[in-house]
Amino acid sequence: MFKIIKRVEMAGGTVIENRIEAPLIAAKAKPGQFVILKADETGERIPLTISDIDPEEGTITVIYMVVGKSTELFKTLQEGDGYQDVIGPLGKPTHVEKLGTVICVGGGTGVAVLFPITRAFKEAGNRVISIIGARNKDLLILEDKMKAASDELHVCTDDGSYGRKGFVTEALKEILQKDAIDLVVAIGPVPMMKFVSAMTKDFNVKTL
Predict the structure, then answer these.
(1) Comparing C-alpha atoms, which of 144, 122, 117 is closest to residue 29?
(2) What pLDDT score was predicted for residue 183?
(3) At residue 81, does pLDDT exceed 90?
(4) Of 81, 82, 59, 60, residue with least CA distance to 2
(5) Which of 73, 75, 106, 165 has its CB surrounded by the most CB atoms within 10 Å?
(6) Which runs of E-coded beta strand occur in the chain?
(7) pLDDT tens digits, residue range 102-120?
(8) Rounded distance between C-alpha atoms, residue 24 and residue 96, angstroms
(9) What is the DSSP string of 36-86?
(10) At 88, is the pLDDT very low, low, confident or very high (cuts 50, 70, 90)?
(11) Whole-angstrom Cα distance, residue 117 to residue 132?
């Protein structure tokens, strides 16, 4: 059993953070990799990107949105409970190097995936500008962690209930117009990533 040692409900209980005891995975995991979790013998196998890694503590953190039967089952697991299976780390880690100035753009629960990548670019010696967004204030996640991992943080909400009113692409355009940017990393809903990619193409900025 892979024990849940910390559980946090976010976004009004629709998003759950689990810190899980998994020392072998924590020792090898890199930003951008994922694990496959199964709650119990009859549960479905669900892939989730690792949102934080603590090799010393021997833990990994995953964040998921409750959207169906399997994630509803995950939500019933409390601190002290555990997943039957956690397999990983899987997938190709995000390539991180010192480039200069990097913009990290996250939307919704994509911020959970973006956080360890943002921190890794900062630790590699880059100047990191982050932009995170959500439909409203209640759906924003990991603002404090993203602020700590960035040199500059911009927060956007579609309805203007917190931070800047508007989409992350609007804040991105303003920065691209005034700064020389070496890389943009964008993770979030597909339409958001599509519009970010179209915009950075106009500015000839490499985008992941």
Answers:
(1) 117
(2) 98
(3) yes
(4) 82
(5) 106
(6) 2-10, 15-21, 34-38, 46-54, 59-65, 82-83, 85-90, 101-107, 127-134, 152-157, 164-165, 183-187
(7) 999 999 999 999 999 999 9
(8) 22
(9) EEE-STTPPPEEEEEEEEETTTTEEEEEEE--SHHHHHHHH--TT-EESEE
(10) very high
(11) 14
pLDDT at 27: 98
The band of 11, judged by pLDDT with boundaries at 50, 70 and 90, is: confident
Q: 26: Cβ–Cβ under 8 A, 6 or more apart, which residues?
A: 53, 54, 55, 57, 58, 59, 60
The pLDDT of residue 12: 85
- Report which of 123, 120, 141 is spatially closest to residue 132, judged by C-alpha positions: 141
CB 20 within 8 A of CB 4: yes
- Decide if 94 contacts 208 (C-beta within 8 A): yes
Which residue in this structure is represented by tokens 């982050």? 130
Question: Given the structure tokens 């921190």, which residue do they identify?
Answer: 119
Is the separation of the CB atoms in 41 and 102 below 8 Å?
Answer: no
Single pTM value for the model: 0.93
Instruction: Report strand pairing: 85-90 vs 34-38.
Output: antiparallel
Specify the DSSP class assigned to residue 138: G
